[in-house]
Specification:
The complex is a heterodimer. Chain A is α+β, with helices and mostly antiparallel strands. Chain A is built from 9 helices and 18 strands. In chain A, strand 7, helix 5 and strand 8 form a beta-alpha-beta unit. The chains are: A alpha+beta, B mainly alpha.
Chain lengths: ~325, ~350
């Protein structure tokens, strides 16, 4: 079911001059995973809570499956919500946690048991019915929370920083698992995250938020390859920013991603050539991160594979030629 | 699980005593001081109470307790606690719910007000009600016109006791509710639960230990309250005399066996309350341990979850040996998280 937000505004506290969400519109396409991505304080969680009905927007409207739900109470919105803290009912077993929503709807016991078994199979936790949340690992709790949110077959699944509380390895495992999980269930999903990698890997549609506004929305690769603003360029992919000035005096910012830089050793030893110096070399698995100080003194981070570096024979302190294969130039709005 | 933790703590304690502990004589002095103080301030008075009660044998003790006036005081005390405690349980949970779940103007003033009965002297609490409901009081005329008696009658005693013991449940439950947050309630809300369903199925089970502790303490205080009750009661024997007041009356009449017999009964009620509290705590701990043991057995009979997950995702080759922590340690470690 498509989720449509139109001009949503939410301000916390009376008299606050900055809105947590300041007029956000976006569409989350049906059956896809849409990531609400942004730094902390960008209003992404507030946005998700408004869609769930846990917060009421000051103005604007929310439509789920072409029905205006802006003033519909939470319990009638038919959304599944997974909290960052999982919020499993600590005094209930796994079975009772998953069954809760169905019991509220007075489903027959047989139906509930069948659905619980089906969901436990889906999240690969068969045999855990009688455990209590305190007896599960973080990753297991996360999956139970997902199963619980899906138990009543909601129209949309809302995930608030679902991997935030997990350690790095479990996070990567669960991420891959969630991709497969979504392929099986095909539920329209909204995912709130501050982790660009998570958004790029999990979602088919990204809404990038900054300070309560949509910075850019589109397919992940579209945002990555064609950033609409310096913020998008620097938030996605961690770019180098080179400052220069155009002939008319306006400031130019050139964004270059670390892996869009090619390095070469100078063939001739000509002191007139402007070369950079390799000042730092850090090996990260199969990749190497270098910091090259440019002739104007600006540092540039470069990422190459270990293989490539070995082929080039570049080591710390070497003077290297820098070639930028792809970059994005922004003219600053204000003229000087 | 808690067994493992306990044994760890024991080992840690021993290691500490070898290296970083106080010298033996320091320990002896500290323990000795504590024991001596406890003996003089708690054990000695208690033994005097029980000793004096039985000083003339069991016969006079029993005779003192079975006096009609004493029996009436026992019933009045039980009645007062029986009304004040449930009232405070309901009010306390409601107040804690209100304060922990909602933001409203004057919230911090309300929290301070909850503590008020603790911070003013009980005698003043009693006087407040005399000033409100007494013959010369604020509502005195209206009450006497309608032939309603509150001061120097049972209602006054119940009201004063309820007021004095109000913070006990509210404070206890509020602390638990604030510690636990409201995520679970919000989760239940998204699953379609109504307010009442959330209260009965999520919130109350979540805070039940807080409620139980609060009720136990509230009960102990309600049965033992002297100051406030003394002001409003009027000390009418057989009618408005509670157990603590009765002790004073008997003592002032030089009826020492009687006074100490009733005091022994009150002390026994207090000890019984502590016993109930301890049993409740012990049961909770035992239940947690039983759960942990069952989980441990489950874990042994089931393959570790992460292994099974990997096995089922055969498209993705993951060699367990490459992961820095094996799948077994993942599950084992998780059991410590909430311990």
């Amino acid at each position: 079911m498509t989720v449509e937000a139109t001009n949503l505004v939410k301000t916390f506290g009376a008299g606050a001059d900055v809105a947590a969400v300041g007029g956000v519109s976006f569409t989350a396409p049906e059956g896809k995973v849409t990531a609400l991505l942004g730094p902390s304080g960008s209003g992404k969680s507030t946005l998700l809570r408004m869609i769930a009905g846990l917060e009421e927007p000051d103005s604007g409207s929310i439509r789920i499956a072409d029905k205006d739900v802006t003033r519909v109470p939470v319990k009638e919105r038919e959304v599944g919500f997974v909290f960052q803290s999982y919020a499993l009912f600590r005094h209930m077993t796994v079975r009772d946690n998953i069954a809760f929503g169905m019991e509220i709807r007075k489903a027959p016991k047989k139906t509930i048991d069948a659905r619980v078994a089906e969901l436990l199979a889906l999240i690969q936790l068969e045999g855990y019915e009688n455990r209590f949340p305190a007896q599960l690992s973080g990753g297991q709790r996360q999956r139970i929370a997902l199963a619980r949110a899906l138990a009543t077959e909601p129209k949309v699944l809302l995930l608030d920083e679902p991997f935030g509380a997990l350690d790095a390895q479990v996070r990567v495992e669960l991420r891959e698992w969630l991709v497969e999980f979504h392929e099986k269930t095909r539920v329209t999903t909204l995912l709130v995250t501050h982790d660009q990698e998570e958004a790029l890997e999990l979602s088919q549609h990204v809404v990038l938020l900054n300070a309560g506004q949509v910075a850019q929305a589109g397919a992940p690769h579209e945002l990555y390859d064609h950033p609409a603003s310096p913020f998008v360029a620097s938030f996605l992919g961690g770019a180098n920013v080179l400052h220069s000035r155009a002939q008319d005096g306006r400031q130019l910012s050139t964004f270059v991603r670390p892996h869009d830089v090619r390095l070469a050793k100078p063939q001739v030893n000509d002191s007139n050539l402007e070369l950079g110096t390799v000042d730092r070399l850090a090996r990260i698995g199969g990749n190497v991160k270098l910091t090259v100080t440019l002739p104007n003194g600006e540092p540039m981070s470069v990422q190459v594979t270990k293989l490539e570096l070995d082929k080039l024979g570049i080591t710390l302190g070497d003077r290297v030629a820098v070639d930028v294969t792809s970059s994005k130039v922004f003219v600053d709005d204000y003229a000087i | 699980m808690s067994g493992i933790i306990a044994s760890r703590q024991r080992t840690a304690g021993r290691r500490q005593s070898d290296v970083a502990a106080e010298a033996p004589w320091v320990r002896a002095v500290l323990i000795g001081t504590a024991a001596a103080f406890l003996g003089v301030a708690v054990l000695l008075p208690l033994s005097v109470v029980f000793g004096s009660a039985f000083s003339k044998g069991i016969g006079p003790f029993w005779a003192a307790l079975s006096q009609p006036e004493t029996v009436s005081a026992i019933w009045l005390t039980l009645l007062t606690a029986g009304i004040a405690v449930p009232l405070n349980a309901v009010f306390g949970v409601a107040a804690a719910w209100l304060v922990s779940r909602y933001d409203f103007w004057g919230k911090s003033a309300l929290v301070t007000l909850i503590d008020l009965p603790f911070s003013v002297s009980p005698v003043i609490s009693g006087l407040i009600f005399v000033l409100l409901f007494g013959a010369q009081g604020f509502w005195g005329q209206w009450l006497s016109d309608h032939d309603i008696k509150i001061i120097f009658a049972v209602p006054g005693i119940v009201i004063a006791t309820t007021f004095v013991t109000f913070p006990l449940v509210a404070r206890e439950v509020l602390a638990v509710m604030q510690a636990q947050g409201s995520d679970e309630e919000e989760a239940a809300l998204t699953m379609g639960a109504s307010g009442l369903q959330i209260l009965t199925r999520i919130t109350l089970p979540k805070v039940r230990w807080g409620v139980i502790y609060g009720v136990i303490l509230c009960n102990a205080r309600a049965m033992g309250e002297f100051g406030a009750v003394s002001v409003v009661s009027g000390h009418i024997r057989g009618q408005t005399n509670t157990l603590p007041l009765h002790v004073e009356i008997l003592y002032n009449e030089y009826n020492f066996v009687g006074a100490f017999a009733v005091a022994a009964l009150l002390a026994s009620l207090a000890l019984a309350t502590l016993l109930v509290k301890k049993t409740v705590e012990l049961n909770a701990a035992l239940k947690a341990r039983r759960l942990a043991r069952r989980a441990e057995l489950d874990r042994r009979s089931l393959p570790p979850a992460s292994l099974r997950r990997r096995a089922s995702l055969s498209t993705r080759p993951v060699a367990p040996s490459t992961s820095p922590r094996g799948p077994v340690s993942v599950t084992a470690e998780s059991s410590f998280e909430k311990a």
